[in-house]
Design brief:
The structure holds 2 protein chains of 2 kinds. A two-stranded antiparallel sheet of chain A has the order 1-2. The two termini of chain A are 41 Å apart. By secondary structure, chain A is an all-alpha fold. In chain A, a hairpin with a 4-residue loop joins strand 1 (62-64) and strand 2. Helices cover 74% and strands 1% of the residues of chain A. By secondary structure, chain B is mainly alpha-helical. Chain B has helices at residues 2-16, 21-44, 75-96, 103-122, 126-135, 137-147, 159-189, 198-204, 208-225, 234-241, 244-269, 271-276, 278-298, 302-321, 326-357, 373-386, 393-408, 410-435, 450-468, 471-489, 494-500, 509-516; strands at 54-62, 67-73. A two-stranded antiparallel ribbon of chain B has the order 1-2. The longest helix of chain B has 32 residues, at 326-357. The chains are: A mainly alpha, B mainly alpha. At the A-B interface, helix 17, helix 18 and helix 20 of A face helix 5, helix 6 and helix 7 of B.
Chain lengths: 496, 519
């Protein structure tokens, strides 16, 4: 008998290997040398190495692990967004109480584990790798949400996320089973062939499968009406983790959403397009209306994230190359806009006794211009005002939607954006037009939940730096968007 | 050169951020004057016989999305650009003479606003226009919100709330306009090469069915900006909240961007819909004239009297454009410049009066002319120009508008004429109520100082200059206006028409009436 060892494309899986090695190293470093500096440094190193390997593979399209994974420009671009976000999350986690309580090494190991899940998920090309990657992404996040052990809110967030997330996963898995039953294949392309043979509407098994899978994915991307966990979890989780979840999880989940619907279910796009379009419209309305009147900035960004997910879903709805490109562009821009805001929120959380309440940024324009400008730019960009990447992102999405004959959804985006101004500008007004809050003296023996205040947090390089970099990128790509457009259109071209 | 004109204010403003507090106002004034200088330099080299774009710049900006960085000047925007640069010098100089809180940021925002406004006038790419149009709001949001007045004690809104209301109102229109602009380009391209260039879009044409809804998306944006009746809800609160130097340029220029948008975009790109909805827009315009005038009669806050009078004046301008005749649009353009030149000094004078009397209520003012003959004289000139006294350029503008309207839709013209009469009432009421009548106790009448004098005098001189020679504007706008109107009515080629049209005599409008009244 003749055994042939299967061909292994080491170059293709090198980013995954690098991440896995990094996870082991970070964890072991914490065992042997438990300092506060080493683990973040090693994490950043791992992320940089992975990013380097991914960039090296840019432009390649290949199937890995016998077709379970597919490395292409879409996967690479989404992975790069996730890595960038993770790197900023590491910076924001420096001196974060949650990280120190949970153990710096373990905290960063979990973060890297989640990143690994994201990289895998962006490459997933069959149902099994899809599900495994999704769980690799989610389980560390459940724990990370609860790392702020002394705060009830954090534990509650972790538990809530665990239960809702598991429900989403279970629904998804059930849907996958139906799909496999209906088409006889787990590979995305095999499913597409199976559906093309049977016809989507003809087979109720496949229909149920698709519906359940869509629901499962909607849970993960916080698309309404499956969004209820989002504001609570965003608020309860430690803020660096919230920023990571808001951006990276969304990017990875949208990547697989995209691949699953546009590749596996692509042949029958006209059947699911209207359903997804309605979901997008519901998200836009619920997210934007929900964010009105929120005093907690993290909750506000949570609701705004629901609305933004609705906008982005538009890129999937049209099932076209420009749709994918616009989605990737938006995700990249969204990363910069959101991270700038979260960096400022982290700084103010540590600096003031108000936590993430809107009072924490009142009078910021006069007090800390270096924090006020990034948050202002971020809010204006999220609201889609010109000269920011948010405007170009909306322009790109709307162009794709109109091209795909979904002009009504484009109008929804416009109306949603209009509502969103009311809450984004409220934050801006608090910074520049509000009276500075009289410093409340720290109450002796304050509630056990309150973290000690670091009056210099607003000047720390690892908080101000990310905020300024992200804000600068937001403006830069708003004025010179072509590099980012090229990046996104490469990703779009890899599926069609 | 056109790039210098557009970006100079922004560059100056950015440098000003890093200057000491006292210098920044003068630096900003210098920047505004330099921008005006550039604009005048370009005006000198402007070829008034051509209807095409001059000083054009065309660079690919986002090729992936079909957006170009494309600027140009023609008869439509020529004088609006000049108006913008003139009024900004006035607004900034006026502010520079006064103490401002956080002056670096204030002047930075003023200059950003100038760049954004110039950009929306100069843009020849539909998307670039939308971008600048939306972006104009950002600096004004901060200017009104952070330097504005809190009216919550007087039954109004706080400054941030009033500004938010303004932003939400105006962006309803603007965001729909973004969708509409993209739809215009994609539907016109019909699967071919995607472009947002206004000229190219005009040649490609759009089906009548698409024109119908796209027309309204654009119209909504422009009518809110003006503001026009029914869409003016943001105006009273915002006008009461705004700091006066910013309000002077806001009222003087930004309202015109809406009217200009009709001429630049709506008429050439959506001709079928324009004809179809001509009467609807005319009704809205007449309603604005009547409503604005009546409100200007009854308001007691001097800012609101000026604000509502603007609603009425912009109604006039809209009516002129939607007469869909060359003389109507000529008059509308002239009137845009005229109105900008009168409303800005009115707000400057109002600011001076408010400083003296400490109130904005016209019932508590009066007698200010007693020891201030120069101020009174300047104000009188402005007031008479506002009511379109024969001899003023406003008279010529209104005459052209009415002339166009008479020939197009005579019924509407009769209603519009009442607006002329009403404008006399509110302009004189504003003048008398503040300058004449009995002087309340405790308020001193003082002559204006040289500082405010050098802000006001040039503006008044512009009014006088135009009164003597309105031909300056009409002559240069006419070729472009004819071309724009011909795009709708399908009239003869503008060049040929120009040759056969007798020279328009502005001093003797009768000749002109004969000249352009051919069907």
């Amino acid at each position: 008998m003749n055994f042939n060892a299967p061909h292994i494309d080491y170059a293709g899986i090198s980013p995954i290997i690098a991440l896995t090695v990094g996870i082991c190293v970070v964890l072991l470093s914490a065992v042997f040398k438990p300092t506060k500096r080493l683990a973040p440094a090693l994490t950043l190193l791992t992320l940089a190495a992975t990013a380097g390997l991914l960039i090296w593979q840019w432009g390649e399209t290949k199937d890995l692990v016998t077709g379970a994974l597919r490395l292409d420009d879409l996967a690479i671009s989404i992975s790069l967004i996730a890595l960038l976000t993770a790197a900023f999350a590491v910076l924001l986690s420096i001196r974060e109480h949650a990280a120190e309580e949970a153990g710096v090494g373990e905290y960063h190991t979990l973060l890297l584990g989640s990143v690994l899940g994201m990289v895998l998920l962006s490459q997933a090309y069959n149902l099994v790798s899809f599900f495994v990657a999704l769980e690799t992404l989610s389980i560390p996040l459940y724990i990370l949400c609860a790392t702020n052990l002394r705060r009830e809110g954090s534990l509650e967030a972790g538990l809530k996320y665990l239960i809702v997330g598991s429900l989403g996963s279970a629904t998804l898995l059930y849907g996958m089973a139906f799909l496999y039953g209906g088409t006889g294949s787990t590979g995305f392309e095999g499913i597409a062939i199976g559906i093309a043979h049977g016809g989507l509407t003809g087979d109720p098994l496949v229909m149920i499968g698709i519906a359940m899978a869509a629901v499962g994915l909607a849970f993960k991307t916080s698309i309404a009406p499956f969004h209820q966990w989002t504001p609570d979890v965003y608020q309860g989780a430690p803020t660096p983790i919230t920023s990571f979840m808001a951006v990276a999880t969304k990017a990875a989940a949208f990547a697989v959403f995209l691949r699953f619907f546009d590749v596996a279910l692509g042949p029958e796009a006209s059947d699911w397009q209207p359903a997804l379009a309605v979901l997008a419209a519901i998200s836009i309305v619920i997210g934007n209306v929900g964010a009105l009147g929120q005093d907690s900035l993290k909750r506000l960004l949570g609701y705004s994230g629901i609305a933004q997910a609705g906008y982005m879903l538009g890129g999937i709805v049209v099932a076209s190359q420009s749709g994918i490109s616009s989605l990737v562009f938006y995700l990249a821009g969204y990363a910069f806009m959101n991270l700038a805001a979260f960096a400022v929120i982290v700084a103010r959380e540590r600096e003031t006794p108000f936590g993430d309440d809107i009072r924490a940024v009142r009078g910021l324009g006069a007090e800390r211009p270096l924090l006020a400008w990034p948050l202002t730019i971020s809010m204006l960009a999220l609201a889609g005002l010109p000269a920011t990447v948010g405007f170009i992102g909306k322009l790109y999405l709307i162009e794709a939607l109109v091209e795909g004959s979904y002009t009504w959804l484009a109008v929804f985006i416009a109306v949603g954006t209009m509502i969103s101004l009311a809450y984004y500008l409220r934050v801006v007004a608090a910074m520049w037009m509000g009276q500075e809050e009289l410093a409340v003296p720290a109450i002796a023996g304050a509630s056990p939940e309150a973290d000690p205040i670091d009056p210099d947090a607003g000047r720390r390089w690892y908080l101000v730096g990310p905020a300024l970099i992200c804000a600068a990128a937001t403006v830069f790509f708003g004025i010179i968007p072509q590099p980012l457009v090229d990046f996104a259109s490469h990703a779009g071209a890899s599926l069609f | 050169m056109i790039n210098v004109l557009l970006w100079l204010p922004l560059a100056v403003g950015f440098v000003g951020l890093f200057l000491p507090k006292k210098a920044t106002g003068w630096w900003a004034t210098l920047g505004a004057v330099a921008t005006l200088g550039v604009a005048i330099g370009m005006a000198v080299g402007f070829d008034s016989s051509s209807s095409g774009l001059q000083y054009t710049v065309n660079t690919s900006w986002i090729p992936g999305l079909g957006v170009e960085y494309s600027l140009g000047i023609d008869g439509l925007n020529f004088f609006l650009v000049l108006l913008t640069t003139v009024l900004w010098v006035g607004g900034i100089a006026f502010a520079a003479f006064r103490q401002q809180v956080r002056p670096q940021l204030f002047f930075f925002l003023m200059l950003v606003a100038e760049t954004a406004t110039l950009g929306s006038f100069l843009a020849q790419d539909l998307l670039l226009f939308v971008l600048f149009f939306d972006f104009m709001l950002v600096p004004f949001y901060f200017l009104f919100g952070a330097w504005g007045h809190d009216r919550s004690g007087e039954g109004g809104l706080t400054a941030p709330a009033a500004t938010l209301k303004m932003i939400v109102y105006t962006l309803i229109g603007s965001l729909l306009m973004l969708v509409a602009a993209i739809a215009t380009a994609i539907l016109s391209a019909k699967g071919g090469h995607l472009t947002f260039s206004i000229q190219a879009l005009q040649q490609q044409g759009l089906s009548t069915g698409s024109q119908r809804w796209i027309f309204w998306f654009f119209a909504a944006a422009f009518l809110v900006k003006m503001p026009s009746f029914l869409l003016h809800g943001w105006m009273p609160d915002a006008y009461r909240a705004a700091p006066l130097p910013a309000l002077a340029v806001f009222s003087g220029v930004l309202a015109k961007v809406g009217a200009y948008g009709f001429l630049r975009i709506v008429l050439p790109l959506f001709p079928a819909a324009t004809i179809e909805f001509q009467e609807v827009i005319l009704v809205v315009a007449l309603a604005s004239i009547l409503y604005g005038s009546v409100m200007a009669f009854t308001q007691t806050n001097v800012r609101l009297i000026a604000g509502y009078s603007s609603v009425a004046q912009l109604g006039f301008i809209t009516a002129g454009i939607f007469a869909l005749r060359a003389d109507g649009s000529d008059g509308a353009l002239l009137q845009m410049v005229n109105h900008g030149l009168v409303v800005a000094p009115i707000f400057v004078i109002v600011a001076i009066l408010v400083e003296r009397t400490g109130t904005e209520d016209i019932r508590e003012m009066g007698g200010m002319a007693l020891r201030a003959p120069v101020l009174a004289a300047l104000f009188l000139i402005v007031a008479l120009a506002t009511l379109a006294m024969p001899g003023s350029a406003n008279f010529i503008g209104e005459f052209y508008i009415l002339n166009g309207l008479f020939q197009a839709k005579i019924v509407f013209a009769f209603v519009a004429i009442s607006g002329v009469a009403m404008s006399a009432y509110y302009a004189l009421r504003l003048y008398q109520g503040t300058m004449h009548n009995r002087k309340p106790d405790g308020i001193a009448s003082r002559e204006i100082g040289w500082r405010d004098g050098i802000v006001l005098a040039p503006l008044v001189l512009c009014i006088l200059g135009l009164a003597l020679y309105p031909q300056l504007i009409l002559h240069r706008t006419d070729p472009s206006v004819k071309q724009t109107v011909a795009a709708v009515t399908g009239g003869p080629a503008p060049k040929a028409q120009l040759a056969s049209t007798p020279v328009i005599g502005a001093e003797n409008p009768k000749i002109d009436e004969l000249g352009v009244s051919e069907p």
